[in-house]
TrEMBL record:
<dbReference type="InterPro" id="IPR041581">
    <property type="entry name" value="Glyoxalase_6"/>
</dbReference>
<dbReference type="InterPro" id="IPR029068">
    <property type="entry name" value="Glyas_Bleomycin-R_OHBP_Dase"/>
</dbReference>
<dbReference type="Pfam" id="PF18029">
    <property type="entry name" value="Glyoxalase_6"/>
</dbReference>
<protein>
    <submittedName>
        <fullName>VOC family protein</fullName>
    </submittedName>
</protein>
<feature type="domain" description="Glyoxalase-like">
    <location>
        <begin position="10"/>
        <end position="120"/>
    </location>
</feature>
Length: 122
């Protein structure tokens, strides 16, 4: 047994955990999410191992603004892709909104409830 922790999940607040989990399941092409009985906590597991993503229901959820110091993003996900154009079209088709497409090797999007995430050229 080790005293050194390992990362289990990154948890995102949202108004509808099942719907947001389904968005990221489609983006990442992962298996179906695990939904708690009350539906307030949903977990996506990486089928290759490693950390997953969890989604928790938050009453009166307020989405982050990007970029904004008044209502900051606080965190975001970086998703590596080998074909930026194909991945761009795919996430837009799933429901992402493009926030910044400056040619820096990455593009910034918002998920359906406003969390920023990036597609990063790998």
């Amino acid at each position: 047994m080790s005293a050194v922790p390992t990362l289990g999940v990154v948890a995102l607040d949202c108004p509808d955990p099942v719907a947001l989990a389904e968005f990221y399941r489609a983006v990442l092409d992962w298996d179906a999410p695990e939904v708690a009985e009350d539906g307030h906590w949903v977990t996506l597991r990486d089928p290759r191992g490693g950390a997953g993503i969890a989604f928790q229901r938050v009453p009166d959820y307020r989405p982050p603004a990007w970029p904004s110091a008044e209502n900051p993003q606080q965190m975001h996900l970086d998703l590596n892709v080998t074909d930026m154009e194909a991945a761009h079209e795919r996430v837009l088709g799933i429901g992402a909104k493009l926030l910044d497409d400056a040619p820096k090797g990455f593009r910034v999007y918002a998920d359906p409830v406003g969390h920023p995430f990036c597609l990063c050229a790998s």
